[in-house]
Amino acid sequence: MKQIDIVGRRKIWFTISIVLIVIAILASFFPGVKLDIQFSGGTIVTYSFNGDLDKGEFQSSIENSLGQKVTLREQNDVNTGATNYVITLNSKSGVTPDQQIAVNTALNEKFPGADIQTASISNVDPSIGRDFLLKSVVAVAVASILMIVYIAFRFRKMNGWSAGVIAVAALVHDLIIAYGAFVVCGFPLNDSFIAVMLTILGYSINNTIIVYDRIRENRRLLPVKTSYKDLVNISVNQSMSRSINTTVSTVIAVGCVCVMSLVYNVSSILTFSFPLLVGMFAGFFSSMFISGSLWTLWQEHKLAKK
Amino acid sequence: MKKVGKPVFFVVLILIAAFTALSFFGVSTAYGDNTHTYIKGVDDIRWGIDIRGGVDVTFTPPADYDASPEEMAAAESIIKVRMVSQNITDYETYVDDSKDRIIVRFPWKQGESDFNPEQAVKELGETALLTFREGNEYTGPVVIEGKHVTSARAVLNSQTNEPMVELNLNTEGAQLFSEATGRLVGQPISIWMDENRISSATVKTQIPNGVATISGGFDVKGAQDLAEKINAGALPFKLETENFSSISPTLGLGARDAMVTAGVIAFILVALFIILIYRMSGVVATIALVGQVAGMIACLTGFFAPFPSFTLTLPGIAGIILSIGMGVDANVITSERIKEELRNGKTLDGAIDSGFQRTFAAIFDGNITMVLVAIILMGAFGPPSSIFGTIFSPIFRWFGASATGAIYSFGYTLIVGVIFNFIMGVTASRLMLKSISKFKPFKKAWLYGGDK
């Protein structure tokens, strides 16, 4: 099998990673992080109707009824082929069912015969949103702590703590890039975001573990004077086909979900599956190209200091 | 390793095929209109409200009111009575005492096209009007109202040990009740919440002191229920909607069909991919994968009729598909190892043995982290009463119960996927591969990744 000199090209890999991380950080400020109303509170209502309705009049009759500004956006319903109007309230305070009934009455008076119906409503109080955000952050924190404990336990015995630290760094790298997919695409952060973060936390570590296990095994098998660079190169190359094949099958699965949700406009799943896909690529990349190279760097640095 | 006989492959294959057929189609018998289900199939899956449409709402007392757990339980019972009176039986309610919240989820009524969710939610949260009326009709004159009741509780009759409900009335209520019961001895008084009759009792004697008991025909649960409902009628607050979302069934069903199609395509592509790469091991992996999906379906439907089904949401379907992709990992790891052992000159039998033995730790490691993550997902986003919700309650209870059944279902499919991956991708695959490799036509190393 052809060996790829992975460690020798580490500057390329590090550059790619740094660029992606910088993009993720920059995108957090421009266009900026959007919080879903699940976290921030607010109201989004989708109306379905028959025929053509004037957008401006539609919007103004809602604004008159509620006494506050709203924004209107068109959305194509792939199932029915009809156009829906999506209304977002600018205030975060939410509306009561009474107000919603009043809006519906006003709309149906204004546009008789259009059969205006609320296809979906999402209305979250800011205080409940804040609680939910905190809870989600805690869920990610708890998962991270458990994962670090697991890595510490697993690596202390088998691979040394330097490998453990790098494995954690690789995880953080993957999470940042998956997060970057959210902000670059303008997907609002919501419970799907938390699910993506946790899934990557659980999934991505395994590729890294496989590589380090190979390194450990090869240390015994290969001659003692094998350099760190060769040791890592051989190990990564040996685990390459397993990592590629596992990643390909996962990517096929998540990719199908992603494509179908894009075609059929299932935004709740698209905003979930696409960042997951990106995170999986990042996980493959970091375990193959970053963690081994970083480890070599660390070990060589240690040797030089002696 | 134990010897694996030739027929084992077919035994495992038939078992998986039978299990798959059962979990997809179920077993039920029909006598006329009566269908009796023995084993539940995909038709019995409970779809989440993001798929079949429905309402998800969080109620809370007014901001300045600190409700006691008893009051919250009473408020929940109002909602339940109203649900049933609107003919919605398939609802879920969760009470979160630390945050004084009641989460209610209910699906769109079947066949209802112009259901008005705003109206339904508004009615659920309104102050309950509790009345005691003369006779058994709603039109009967009102004896006392909810504001006259200071408390109601379930007690046991000290002589007969029979469960009953004890009412404590305030001074005004006691006077009114004394007058009415004096007049109505031998006649019924009925208790109403809004326009729903929740109980009816015959007056035995006049009750002068404002302490009344209702007895007869209760079990303990029934007495507690009635006491809660009466307390609910005495609640001094109206429930406000804090969170409110609703989705129509057309949106959700279309999304479900798209996701199911995605799942089928993903399965076919993944199967083609592993068969192409790993040949015989890939075929075995595909059979194992069928078993894994069937196992996940069985865990969602509840399989055996008495077991409860588990709500499946859109992210839950995504979780199943993700598990298909990740489940192959176990087969990939072992197949790679078998390939390597073959190239190192091992015999086919020896290579398969050591392939499975030496990779078990790696597969276990790979799955344990997913289990950890899935448990946290279920703990954080599940109802507080769920098993993982209880485990993590010291951590998560400060943040209130969450209203995202969608992600809970994702965590569930992930964890179930891992479990069946162990059964199918590891155990069943090993048995099948060992036995199939004993057949002459399949005894060629190249079928397992060796050289031709």
Automatic annotation (TrEMBL), chain B:
Q: How does it sit in the membrane?
A: Multi-pass membrane protein
Q: What is its main location?
A: membrane
Q: Which GO terms describe its molecular function?
A: protein-transporting ATPase activity
Report the subcellular localization: Cell membrane
Query: In its UniProt record, which GO terms are filed under biological process?
Result: intracellular protein transmembrane transport; protein targeting; protein transport by the Sec complex
Summarizing the function annotation, the protein's role is: Part of the Sec protein translocase complex. Interacts with the SecYEG preprotein conducting channel. SecDF uses the proton motive force (PMF) to complete protein translocation after the ATP-dependent function of SecA.
Q: Where is the SecDF P1 head subdomain domain?
A: 142-236
Domain Protein export membrane protein SecD/SecF C-terminal residue range list: 238-380
Concerning its family, UniProt says:
Belongs to the SecD/SecF family. SecD subfamily.
* Subunit structure, as described in the record: Forms a complex with SecF. Part of the essential Sec protein translocation apparatus which comprises SecA, SecYEG and auxiliary proteins SecDF. Other proteins may also be involved.
Membrane spanning stretches: 258-278, 285-307, 313-333, 368-392, 412-433
Signal peptide interval = 1-30
What organism is the protein native to? Anaerotruncus massiliensis
Q: Which domain of life is it from?
A: Bacteria
What is the protein's name according to its record? Answer: Protein translocase subunit SecD
Q: Name one GO cellular component term.
A: plasma membrane
What keyword terms does UniProt attach to this protein? Cell membrane, Membrane, Protein transport, Signal, Translocation, Transmembrane, Transmembrane helix, Transport
